[in-house]
Design a protein that fits this description.
The complex is a heterotrimer of chains A (436), B (477) and C (389). Chain A has 436 residues and is of the alpha/beta class. Chain A has 24 helices and 9 strands. Chain A has a 5-stranded mixed beta sheet with strand order 1-3-2-4-5. In chain A, 54% of the residues are buried. Classes of the chains: A alpha/beta (436), B alpha+beta (477), C alpha+beta (389). At the B-C interface, strand 9, helix 7, helix 8 and helix 16 of B face strand 8, helix 6, strand 10, helix 8 and helix 12 of C.
């Protein structure tokens, strides 16, 4: 027991270096960090960069140093290390003191957004992506289809040739089978009805993986759960919050709460881990808004990941056999954000013939991390290469995950490695098993 | 003299010189960056003048030669999980982070040895050699994060070192860079080196003799099986007496961990390990090795616990149940958050048989200072870890005072200031409580032989006139 | 030449004062316990003073349930064992000369036997020492608790230092309850490779035999001796594992409950008064190749290996040239195998020709020299005997 954390905070917090103290990383949360260092080996950026500034403990110290006026919130250094964070929250799983790092880093990013000047072009792109594209399923789907087409006709190669690598990388991410057919309003429960849920569709899921949404509904229905698909739902706002855009994140949250809270369902089912983790934190996001806080808490308490809900109510319909060697890669926001680890594995384990092979560093981020593959392409690529290497060595012929970002990223990585290993969502796999 | 305050090259000038020497990618010199190397897992802080991230031994040697020429202290850092300030540059100078020297250089299955770099994480070694049926014995609670270099520096232990020894019993060879830049290779894969046991002197020297750049360790065959037992007692005395009786009966369990009521409460609230809440003390025991005789040993342990009044006895029936029982112990420190926002962990050792009386002293200290103190510790080797709970920074003085009183009780009982966390800068002022001037002078001879310039992690282990003056005044009072 | 003074200080302070006086007067000192191991180390040049530790004797503290014992250095192993036996305990060290050796001598010589396989050697069991130093001070290292990281581990430096750094006046050691059961087996092999493979088949499991010894008396004549200690079921199973391993290496084993009696003479190999004994410490897997080399040498008499730890002793017999060449060859072979070796015993007449510490280029020698100069600035302690001259 050589190194168990010592708690002792001797340095007084002098004055605030944040522009908006109400929305800054909370001192109470920061002070829970006892700098024991247990988070270091779980942090992908520390793993790659090996410096304290790019570790969770270091970033927390940076946040404290801003409070204490030792460094400026607007400084390049601060922005650099905070934005290099994947927000994968692996450190939260490792933390013996229960530091809620995700909340801290998102709060910090919101502060950086306020104090840092961005170029007009960057502003425009951000504003287009966050306000116009992501929350508009039809537009996003169109964008995806155009992207697929562009890739098919070799635009990525051209972009690369003319030096627009980032754009080309982005195109590479878009899945081949981008579809966006609308789902029916209701999926009736097969057999005795055991419950009723609402499916939260998610923007990226709807644009890129509408099939998976349908599969999720079918699998639940097959197990006696009636699924309703509310049409009046919008983007969860996770990407906005991760990027520090709390104003928009809050607006989107309120819209979702208002349009969904009255539904008579047992749970709001999400199959995108990133959305799920964020929806479960609406209460925190709106904690300082007296008009909304309680409603948000109530809403969040009803959010369930699809695997979480299905495992909890139990599988009643026996899946058919699937011959596959599957490696399950934990989405960070499922494993670390929602502490869901065993459920997806148990569901996959219920499929006859499917062999679950161990995947080294399954609990590590693949480098997708919301918009990370766009904002930090170098680091993202290194993490992806590492992930792909582990997958190739695992002997699996199928990678299973539960989040669209990971799905796209891993698929793109495997594609560029020349591998034909397929990538599927847990719900896709179950749906296939039910169709055999 | 090693107590000299070094006044060589510092500041921006030093950073520039180091960048020229090693290349800019290996040097951190901005205030923003340096501020993040001023802490470790303990309390004290000090900002380095520069941080160097070497790629190999040559980098370290080059750096040390430079520092020697320019009178700059040099302080090694692994993962910065230490609990005695070992990685804190208390006299400034260069912090050497071994984050980029973290490889396993060789797994020698036939000889049951591994050769590793100092930045390697302890658990990564055991994970890497597990497919060969081997493991590295020392398992500090920080083993998921702490490095082998740090383990060597601190002579780390862990719950499972009771039967199999601590780091020093598992290191056969070292490559080290002395503070003047000399590279020495001591020992190797064989158990004994020729001449004086320099490896033995180096292990546990807390970075004050030089910087370890390569380590050869023994690997041990994984036990065939284990039995894990939880025993609950109506009093801590009965639990402690069971510990002595088990040992006296000829059983040396692989682990023997004790928790008091306050700890049990916190653990149950946090992880619900299934410990009975009405118990005053819980003993967690593990026997391992060949399958044969484990049930036998487990039954004898249970019988002894029963004789000493154990009210509940539970033997883990599955790996899952074992994990659950251990989850309580492993999560115990973290679970203290349920009881108070902050705690200060002490580390003292006493002879096993003195457990009951020293635990009573700990209780008295708690009452006298009005501070709650939980006990979660390695009972098998008498290694106490009292956790002093507190809420406000203003309580710090009294918390430290309580810690010191507990240490004094340990020493009075014939024990030691530290069993595994090290002296560092946390307890160097307390060293005279345990060691006479002659004892310390003998240690100083070793320091002077390895590091005559006194540049290797200065201000650690030995009392320093500056920082310890206050303590001496205090002790005199 | 002045007459030799023999001093027998009765306590640590007197001992330290004698050393300080000697140091001040530049008078050289030999440190002895009961004098069983004069053959160890470099040259045994006459000294002005012989300091015997035998008057510092007796068990200082023994709390059985703490599993530790503190004992004055001049106490004999026999005496200590009697005290421990009364409490049902043992010291898990079985060095040569166990009938006369003192504890201080065992520590100063880093004397090991065959129990090291399971229980470790002196360095694993010594937890505290009291030292009388050449400056007249009495220093304590370590302590009386089994886990302790306060300050440097000076114990380690004094183990095997042969009195060259100071005089060990008191030791605290770990002790163990007497094992409930013990049993053994032996098996014969024609090839070193097979004998050591059979041994490794036990060492690579979690069986932890008490002793795992390979005894070679000539080419084609090797024997594996296994001693198991502990609870009866584990002892039984350990011997099963050993028997299986022996079979897998192409031989057959027979149980031998008097295995301890068979091990006793092997342990005393360095005590034999004729020929040369080289002690090697090898990476365990290097033992078969090393043994093959040793067995082919002219003058080879016997090889006894603690196969679990790679501690191998080779005895040679023959005329002076055979001994000198043989000892050199064995030391060289050990180094080639990645190990170390030194001449442990040789006839007094060859003490100069066969160096105890190799050819003086051992790693870290400059550090040893600084340590020696630091602890014994006037060079009075065993001036020609240690690794530093």
């Amino acid at each position: 027991m050589t190194a168990e954390p010592t708690t002792m905070k001797a340095t007084p917090i002098a004055f605030s270096g944040y522009p908006d103290t109400a929305d800054a990383p909370a001192k109470e949360l920061l002070s829970r960090c006892v700098h024991c260092g247990f988070c270091l080996p779980t942090c992908p950026t520390y793993g790659v960069l090996g410096v304290e500034m790019d570790s969770p403990r270091g970033r927390i110290r940076l946040m404290q140093n801003v409070w204490e006026g030792r460094i400026a919130a607007a400084s390049d250094d601060f922005e650099k290390h905070i934005s290099a964070c994947l927000d994968c929250r692996a450190c939260e799983t490792a933390c013996p003191s229960g530091v809620e790092y995700g909340k801290l880093v998102e709060a910090t990013r919101s502060q950086i957004e306020r104090v840092r000047e961005r170029s007009p072009m960057a502003q425009l792109v951000r504003s287009f992506a966050f306000r116009a594209l992501i929350p508009q399923p039809a537009l996003l789907a169109l964008f995806a289809r155009v992207s697929v087409l562009s890739r098919k006709i070799g635009v990525a190669r051209v972009l690369r040739l003319i030096g627009m690598r980032r754009m080309a990388d982005l195109l590479d991410l878009v899945p081949d089978r981008a579809t966006s057919q609308a789902l029916p309003a209701t999926f009736a429960a097969a057999g005795t009805r055991r419950g009723r849920v609402a499916l939260f569709q998610g923007c990226v899921m709807r644009a890129a993986y509408a099939d998976t949404n349908a599969a999720t509904a079918r699998v639940l229905a097959r197990n006696g759960i009636e699924v309703v698909v509310p049409q009046d739902q919008t983007c969860c706002g996770a990407l906005h919050a991760h990027a520090g855009d709390r104003v928009d994140a809050r607006t989107l949250a309120k819209r979702n709460i208002a349009s969904l809270e009255a539904l008579d369902v047992d749970a709001f089912i999400v199959n995108a881990a990133g959305c799920g983790a964020h929806l479960k934190e609406y209460g925190w996001l709106l904690k300082d808004d007296p008009a909304w806080h309680e409603r948000a808490e109530r809403f969040s308490s009803r959010v369930r990941d699809a695997t979480e809900h299905l495992a909890a109510v139990g599988i009643v319909a026996r899946p058919g056999a699937l011959r596959a060697r599957a490696a399950y890669d934990d989405p960070c926001h499922l494993l670390h954000g929602q502490k869901i680890k065993d459920e997806p594995r148990a569901l996959l384990g219920a499929i006859p013939g499917l062999e679950l092979v161990p995947l080294v560093e399954a609990d590590w981020c693949c480098g997708s991390a919301g918009t990370y593959n766009v904002t930090q392409p170098e680091l993202s690529r290194q993490l992806l290469d590492r992930k792909v290497g582990h997958i190739l060595r695992s002997g699996a012929n199928m990678v299973v995950t539960a989040n669209p970002g990971c799905h796209m990223q891993i698929a793109a990585g495997l594609r560029s490695a020349g591998s034909d290993i397929s990538v599927l969502h847990v719900m896709d796999v179950l749906d296939r098993a039910y169709s055999t | 003299m090693t107590t000299a305050i070094h006044a060589g090259l510092r500041g921006a000038e030093l950073v520039t010189a180091l960048e020229a020497l090693l290349g800019p990618t290996k040097v951190l010199g901005t205030p923003e960056d340096r501020m993040l190397y001023e802490y470790d897992g303990a309390v004290d802080t000090a900002t380095p003048d520069a941080v160097v991230l070497p790629n190999d031994t040559q980098d370290v040697a080059k750096l040390a030669r430079f520092c020697h020429e320019h009178d700059v202290p040099i302080v090694a850092r692994g993962a910065g999980t230490g609990l005695s300030g070992g990685a804190i540059p208390v006299e400034g100078g260069v912090v050497v982070s071994f984050a980029r020297m973290a490889r396993i250089l060789e797994i020698d299955v036939a000889n049951r040895r591994a050769v590793v770099q100092p930045g390697l994480i302890n658990l990564h070694l055991s994970t890497a050699v597990a497919p060969h049926g081997l493991y590295f014995v020392p398992d500090p609670s920080s083993q998921k994060a702490c490095t082998l270099g740090g383990n060597v520096a601190e002579n780390s232990g862990g719950p499972h070192t009771l039967a199999y020894g601590v780091t020093t019993n598992h290191v056969t060879g070292l490559e080290a860079v002395l503070s003047d830049g000399t590279v020495v290779r001591l020992g190797g894969k064989a158990e004994d080196a020729e001449g004086y046991d320099l490896v033995g002197a180096f292990v546990g020297s807390e970075g004050t003799l030089g910087l370890v750049t390569e380590i050869t360790v023994k690997l041990t065959p994984l036990p065939e099986d284990k039995r894990t037992i939880m025993a609950a007692f109506p009093s801590m005395d009965q639990a402690s007496e069971s510990v002595s009786s088990i040992i006296a009966a000829g059983i040396v369990p692989a682990a023997m961990e004790l928790m008091d009521k306050l700890a049990i409460e916190a653990v149950e609230a946090a992880v619900s390990a299934g410990y009975p809440l009405e118990a005053e003390g819980i003993l967690l025991l593990e026997v391992d090795g060949l399958r044969d005789g484990l049930d036998d040993a487990a039954e004898r342990i249970e019988a002894i616990c029963r004789e000493h009044g154990a009210t509940t006895l539970r033997r883990a029936a599955s790996a899952l149940e074992r994990e659950r029982l251990w989850a309580g112990r492993k999560g115990a420190f973290a679970a203290m958050g349920r009881l108070a926002p902050a705690y200060y962990v002490q580390d003292g050792v006493i002879p096993r048989t003195r457990l009951p009386e020293v635990l009573r002293t700990v209780h008295d200290v708690s009452v006298r200072h009005g501070l709650r103190i939980a006990n979660v510790f390695h009972a098998g080797d008498g290694n106490l870890h009292p956790l002093v709970l507190f809420s406000e920074p203003s309580e710090l003085e009294s918390v430290k005072e309580a810690g010191l009183e507990i240490l004094a009780a340990c020493i009075a009982a014939g024990g030691s200031l530290t069993g595994e966390h090290g002296v560092g800068m946390e307890k160097n002022c307390y060293m005279p409580l345990q060691f006479s001037a002659a004892d310390l002078a003998a240690m100083r001879r070793v320091k002077d032989a390895f590091d005559p310039a006194g540049l290797a992690n200065p201000g650690k282990i030995f009392p320093t006139p500056g920082r310890c003056k206050e303590f001496q005044l205090h002790a005199a009072r | 030449m002045t007459t030799v003074d023999t001093l027998r200080p009765a306590d640590a302070e007197t001992c330290a004062r004698s050393l300080a006086d000697a140091s001040g007067a530049r008078r050289t000192v030999r440190v002895r316990g009961s004098g069983t191991k004069d053959y160890l180390g470099g040259e045994l040049a006459p000294t002005d003073i012989v300091l015997e530790t035998t008057a510092m004797r007796g068990v200082v503290a023994h709390v059985p349930a703490d599993l530790t014992v503190t004992v004055a250095a001049g106490t004999t192993l026999v005496e200590l064992r009697q005290t421990l036996a009364a409490a049902g305990q043992v010291l898990a060290l079985d060095p040569p000369h166990g009938d006369r050796a003192t504890i201080g001598g065992v520590v100063a010589a880093n004397s090991t036997g065959f129990l090291r396989a399971r229980y470790g050697g002196v360095r694993d069991q010594l937890i505290g020492t009291t030292l009388a130093l050449a400056d007249g001070t009495v220093a304590h290292a370590g302590g009386r608790v089994v886990k302790n990281v306060a300050g440097y581990d000076l114990n380690k430096l004094f183990i095997g230092s042969l009195g060259t750094l100071g005089v060990i006046v008191e030791c605290t050691l770990k002790v163990l309850p007497r094992p409930a059961a013990s049993a053994g087996l032996r098996a014969r092999f024609a090839r070193a490779a097979d004998a050591f493979r059979a041994a490794d088949g036990v060492a690579s499991t979690s069986a932890r035999p008490a002793s795992l010894v390979v005894d070679a008396t000539g080419r084609g004549a090797l024997e594996l001796l296994v001693l198991a200690e502990g609870g009866a079921p584990a002892v039984r199973r350990t011997l099963e594992i050993a028997a299986t391993s022996v079979r897998a290496s192409g031989s057959a084993s027979e149980p031998d409950d008097a295995i301890a009696d068979a091990l006793a003479p092997l342990r005393e190999l360095p005590a034999a008064s004729d020929g040369v004994v080289v002690r090697a410490s090898l990476p365990p897997a290097a033992q078969p190749a090393f043994a093959d080399t040793a067995m082919r040498l002219e003058g080879f008499a016997r090889l006894v290996a603690d196969a679990a730890t790679g501690t191998v002793r080779v005895a040679l017999r023959g005329d002076d040239d055979v001994l000198v060449l043989g000892a050199d060859a064995i030391v060289a072979a050990a180094r080639v195998c990645g190990g170390t070796a030194h001449a442990e015993r040789r006839p007094d007449s060859l003490r100069r020709r066969i160096a105890a510490w190799g050819d003086g280029d051992m790693p870290g020698l400059f550090l040893m020299r600084r340590l020696k100069e630091s602890f014994d600035p006037n060079g009075i302690l065993e001036p020609a005997r240690g690794p530093v001259r």
